[in-house]
């Protein structure tokens, strides 16, 4: 009987220790109070980051998710569902960007916390008041900005939400060290900045796709030491006039893509053979009017996996851009292996496919 009482008191103490009221400051400098680690979470964005930082077990406590951003990477999603079928059973809450996000659905899930991306929080407008009025704490994180500060802060926040502060600190430290290494080498080399153009190649060869200004791939190319030709014309993301690209005459061109796409779209990612990726990239090299561009003439055409952007996994992509623009300075780096090593160290599956390539 005494032993049972001791066991019960130990259990109660452990429960109290592992679930305590915590106040954090999110990326928008909002103070948010909740019981950490959270037990019923709605993940609005960055689902793979949530797993990498919080461990696979963090998904034991996810009751709702905006699934489309993961399902857009169809082969990656299927790989994860095969490993963990319960992912497919998590309730879908809709999309903010297509006005299908369901406040009613979220409230019905009785979450004790919602994690949203910065852009989601701002786009939801008055719906935020409805959610907060229902007594649901909202924590805002942001990997889209591609700043070191927000990457670190967001990683630490997910660590608190999931009770994995030490793991989050380790991931954040490794990310910071990677950026510092690249920055230090660039400063020491002190070379002229190459002009770089990045395009999401989902629309195919005959239609100019989206490019990026001061966030996502635009920010990655800048951190890696490039002069982003899109920055003067595009704030976040948008399309350049074909003549603007030719006139800017980039030294390096990077096309990005997902696993699926049309017959001439850029395809990259899980299950994509490198020979196919190179063939698609070759098609973009032959675009009408591009023969005069330095990157084309000098065969400095590259491709990257679009799913490896706006995530704590993108440290490998910063290496990729740095090596593409300064091949001698970063000759020792292996960005593809760095990407796979992150999966090996922090995620329960390891993808197979093509995540970076070049002509």
TrEMBL record:
Domain Fe/B12 periplasmic-binding, residue spans: 40-337
Organism: Vibrio plantisponsor
UniProt superkingdom: Bacteria
Keyword check for Disulfide bond: no
Signal peptide stretch: 1-19
InterPro entries named in the record: ABC_Transporter_SBP, ABC_transptr_periplasmic_BD
Annotated Pfam families: Peripla_BP_2
Protein's name in the database: ABC transporter substrate-binding protein
Keywords: Signal
């Amino acid at each position: 009987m005494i032993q049972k009482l001791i066991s019960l008191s130990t259990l109660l103490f452990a429960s109290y220790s592992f679930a305590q009221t915590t106040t954090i400051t999110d990326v928008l400098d909002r103070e948010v109070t909740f019981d950490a680690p959270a037990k019923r979470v709605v993940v609005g964005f960055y689902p793979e980051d949530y797993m990498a930082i919080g461990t696979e077990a963090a998904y034991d406590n996810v009751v709702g998710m905006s699934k489309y951003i993961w399902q857009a990477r169809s082969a990656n999603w299927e790989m994860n569902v095969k490993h963990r079928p319960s992912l497919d059973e998590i309730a879908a809450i809709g999309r903010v960007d297509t006005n299908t996000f369901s406040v009613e659905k979220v409230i019905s899930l009785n979450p004790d916390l919602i994690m949203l991306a910065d852009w989601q929080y701002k786009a939801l407008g008055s719906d935020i008041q409805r959610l907060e009025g229902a007594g649901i704490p909202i924590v805002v994180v942001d990997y889209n900005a591609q700043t070191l500060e927000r990457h670190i802060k967001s990683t630490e926040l997910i660590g608190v939400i999931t009770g994995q502060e030490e793991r989050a600190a380790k991931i954040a430290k490794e990310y910071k060290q990677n950026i510092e290494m690249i920055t230090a080498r660039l400063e020491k080399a002190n070379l002229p900045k190459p002009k770089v153009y990045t395009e999401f190649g989902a629309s195919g060869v005959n239609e100019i796709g989206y490019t990026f200004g001061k966030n996502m791939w635009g920010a990655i190319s800048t951190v890696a030491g490039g002069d982003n030709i899109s920055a003067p014309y595009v704030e976040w993301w948008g399309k350049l006039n074909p003549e603007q690209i030719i006139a800017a005459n980039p030294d390096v061109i990077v096309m990005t893509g997902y696993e699926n796409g049309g017959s001439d779209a850029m395809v990259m990612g899980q299950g994509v053979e490198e020979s196919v990726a190179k063939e698609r990239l070759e098609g973009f090299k032959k675009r009408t009017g591009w023969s005069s561009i330095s990157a084309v003439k000098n065969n400095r055409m590259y491709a990257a996996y679009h799913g490896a952007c706006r995530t704590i996994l993108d440290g490998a992509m910063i290496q990729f851009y740095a090596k593409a623009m300064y091949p001698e300075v970063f000759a020792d780096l292996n960005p593809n292996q760095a990407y796979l090593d992150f999966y090996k160290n922090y995620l329960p599956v390891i993808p197979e496919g093509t995540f970076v390539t070049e002509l």
